[in-house]
Amino acid sequence: MFTGRVPHQRVTDYYSVLDALVYPRKSMRLTELVTPLKPMEAMAQGKPVLASDVGGHRELIRHAENGYLFAADDPAALASAIEVMFQNRVSHEKLVARGRAFVEIERNWINSVGRYEPIYATLARACDNAGF
User: Fold this and answer.
1) CA distance 121 to 100
2) Rounded to an integer, what distance in angstroms lies between the CA atom of residue 103 and that of residue 22?
3) What is the pLDDT of residues 26-58, one digit of tens each?
4) Greatest extent of the chain over all pairs of C-alpha atoms, in Å
């Protein structure tokens, strides 16, 4: 079933009926550089995440620790990752807990915004020194 756009307040309803979320991105400049938000939403919802091993996903997912990675552009690798995930249901609770903890600890606003503070401070000093 393809639902089309789902209102934000209903996302949790949809996630609640899923066994896992799969993000098969193709390897291209955009997917190697941009970190997607959807896998973090799934981890925060307590769902196993499977994702292609492009740069944006590798930034979020540590294979078999807080999700599963598979080779981008490789349908057989995707199928194999899904099979492995369902064969390892016993370890799901730990994997899901680590995924949720990753989002709570690493990807909160304080940590995300805090990474930029030194950059802006350096730029502000450079502007002051240049007379701007």
Assistant:
1) 31
2) 17
3) 999 999 999 999 999 999 999 999 999 999 999
4) 63
Which pTM was predicted?
0.81
- Residue matched to tokens 């502000």: 124
C-alpha closest to that of 111 among 119, 120, 103: 103
Buried b / exposed e over 59-83, threshold 16 CB at 10 Å, is: ebbeeeebbbbbebeeeebbeebbe
Distance (Å, whole) CA 52 – CA 7:
26
Query: Is it the case that residue 1 has pLDDT exceeding 80?
Result: no
52 bridge partner residues: 70
What is the full DSSP assignment across 100-125?
HHHHHHHSSHHHHHHTTHHHHHHHHH
CA distance 130 to 113: 26
- Tokens 């950059």 locate to 119
| Domains recognised in the chain with CATH numbers | 8-130 (3.40.50.2000)
